[in-house]
Amino acid sequence: MIIKQVKTSETWQVRHEVMWPDQPFEFVQLEEDNSGLHFGVFIDEKLVSIVSCFISDNEMQFRKLAVLPEYQGRGIASELLNYIFELARKKELRRIWCNARTNKKSFYEKLGMKDTFQIFSKAGQEFTIMEICM
Questions:
Q1: pLDDT tens-digit profile of 30-43?
Q2: Can you give the pLDDT at residue 46?
Q3: pTM for the complete prediction?
Q4: Are the C-beta atoms of 11 and 54 separated by less than 8 Å?
Q5: Cα torsion angle, 95, 121, 39, 110, sign
Q6: How far lies 20's CA from each of 13, 58, 103, in Å?
Q7: Which of 1, 14, 63, 85 has the highest CB neighbour count under 10 A?
Q8: 93, 33, 31: which is closest to 60 by C-alpha?
Q9: Would you say the C-alpha torsion 111, 125, 64, 45 has a positive or negative sign?
Q10: Which 3 state secondary structure label does DSSP give 66?
Q11: Are 67 and 77 in contact (CB under 8 A)?
Q12: DSSP of 101-133, one letter per residue?
């Protein structure tokens, strides 16, 4: 498993396939993507997981964490998040947060993130804001 920075456009296929397969492909192409840092996990040179990070002031928001279905359950997302948590520590950021699907909340809690109980809906999905202070 290799984790490295990737181009914005490299994230779109995994995002679409995993997160929003019922939406048009353009739905996962976000204007703000150009201001982010994007990381991917490669197994045998295949991109199997992605995350996008946006740093502002002393905090980082990560978005669009996704792992291809056939690679889920192997700890790949945990490794990727630990990678960006370490990046945040090196940059001396104070807070990392994300909009997590509420049915995935326990995954983020296992990594030390806390639920802020700020819940909202988007495209028929319910989300809560999860955070970890460094």
A1: 888 889 999 999 99
A2: 96
A3: 0.89
A4: no
A5: positive
A6: 10, 30, 15
A7: 14
A8: 93
A9: positive
A10: strand
A11: yes
A12: EGGGHHHHHHTT-EEEEEEEEETTEEEEEEEEE
